[in-house]
Amino acid sequence: MRISVFGSTGSIGESTFDLLQRSDHQVVALTGGRNVRRLAEQAIALKAELAVTAYDDCLPALREALAGTGIETAAGTQALIEAAERPADWVMSAIVGAAGLAPGFRALKQGATLALANKESLVTAGPLLLAEAERHGARILPVDSEHSAVFQALVGEDISAVERIIITASGGAFRDWPMEKLATATVAQASSHPNWNMGQRITIDSASMFNKALEIIETREFFRVAPEKIEVLVHPESMVHALVGFRDGALMAHMGAPDMRHAIGYALNWPERAELPVERLDLAKLGALTFRAPDAARYPALRLAYEVMEIGGTAGAAFNAAKEIALDGFIDGRIGFLDMATVVEEVLDEMSARQGLCNSALSLDTIAYTDAEARALASHYLTKVTN
Ligand SMILES: NC(=O)C1=CN([C@@H]2O[C@H](COP(=O)(O)OP(=O)(O)OC[C@H]3O[C@@H](n4cnc5c(N)ncnc54)[C@H](OP(=O)(O)O)[C@@H]3O)[C@@H](O)[C@H]2O)C=CC1
Ligand SMILES: CC(=O)[C@@H](O)[C@H](O)COP(=O)(O)O
Ligand SMILES: [Mn+2]
């Protein structure tokens, strides 16, 4: 297959790189951000046609690193779009944040299969993305571990027989912390995941459960199930990734070691299963797995996810944008860990009262407008929290 990877230098990108190195697929485009040294190494190792950095000021370094290799170089947002237009059969969408939407959207337009790690695409533009795929006969395959698990549990099943979808949550870095201590959580503490090795932003989102909040909305958008059918279950071991409950009472669980090469490899080889370099679980050695209901007071992000689905329209875009700004604020030391949820809730409240979020028809323009408004408002609330 001809393959492109967007966000190649990140955590999902590196896992994809690992699988591609073991394959004979033809690599078209690899994209990254500031880590141009790694982007160049990957492009050389995979004999890519093109390497793109998202940032203009990183282009000279990328050019220098790839001088004499014959690999094309480019930079900037438009170059990312153009890279997504290059004919490819399979495209990995693994840029972090709302920035991942546009290239993925464009890849669908040329009919490529989109392996979707970038959950923000579905949260902000789910119905548009699915319609675009349908319009161009393209396919979206989930890569997020829970959604890959649900997808696998649904093979050969009728979605109308699904009673509930349960996605698991590790509980993140602070799952065993007393509530009173959460306000003092530092960025370093929040950036360490108990089970998964991931980028910093999703790792912190895991600690605050904003990651799970995004995933609830992602579940609703991808599988088109009603919000009340979606549940979250805290499962500290991260071995069961999701469960699907059917109307006859059967519960199909998907298990595997916490290694994203499984979900990526599944999407890469779909509809077949190929051998993958992931650990085989020894259940006797594991002995026991534990599950508990999430504590609503500890994780306001979960409640906000259901509010967003209730509002509909561009509320997902507002929610995600506000979350991205609040996360920036926490990482930069401007607000505390618990303030992130406060900022996001304030933005949602204000925007749904002021703009009637559900009334604006979903389009790339209304999403971009809502995203910008939510970012501006969240930045304003950041300063309010700080003062
Ligand atoms: N990591 C995981 O296991 C999982 C991740 N996901 C989702 O996958 C996506 C990627 O996550 P993860 O790999 O952890 O993230 P990382 O932060 O590790 O990697 C992000 C990638 O995107 C690039 N990038 C960052 N900002 C921009 C931008 N503005 N424009 C273009 N490229 C940019 C980075 O470049 P550089 O580093 O060179 O600056 C890097 O290549 C997220 O949406 C996340 O929610 C979903 C499930 C699991
Ligand atoms: C690997 C993956 O899919 C992540 O989204 C993971 O789910 C994060 O772990 P949490 O369950 O802690 O959010
Ligand atoms: Mn996940």
TrEMBL record:
Gene3D superfamilies the record matches: 1.10.1740.10, NAD(P)-binding Rossmann-like Domain (3.40.50.720)
Keyword field: Isoprene biosynthesis, Magnesium, Manganese, Metal-binding, NADP, Oxidoreductase
Residue span, DXP reductoisomerase C-terminal domain: 255-376
Binding positions for 1-deoxy-D-xylulose 5-phosphate per the UniProt entry: K119, S145, E146, S170, H193, S206, N211, K212, E215
Domain 1-deoxy-D-xylulose 5-phosphate reductoisomerase C-terminal: 140-223
Record carries keyword Oxidoreductase: yes
SUPFAM superfamilies linked to this entry: 1-deoxy-D-xylulose-5-phosphate reductoisomerase, C-terminal domain, Glyceraldehyde-3-phosphate dehydrogenase-like, C-terminal domain, NAD(P)-binding Rossmann-fold domains
Keyword NADP annotated: yes
Involved pathway(s): Isoprenoid biosynthesis; isopentenyl diphosphate biosynthesis via DXP pathway; isopentenyl diphosphate from 1-deoxy-D-xylulose 5-phosphate: step 1/6
Annotated Mn(2+) binding sites: D144, E146, E215
Enzyme Commission identifier(s): 1.1.1.267
NCBIfam families to which the protein is assigned, alphabetical: Dxr
Domain 1-deoxy-D-xylulose 5-phosphate reductoisomerase N-terminal, chain residue ranges per copy: 3-126
Stated role: Catalyzes the NADPH-dependent rearrangement and reduction of 1-deoxy-D-xylulose-5-phosphate (DXP) to 2-C-methyl-D-erythritol 4-phosphate (MEP).
A Pfam family matched in the record: DXP_redisom_C
Gene: dxr
Native species: Thioclava litoralis
Identification of the protein by name: 1-deoxy-D-xylulose 5-phosphate reductoisomerase
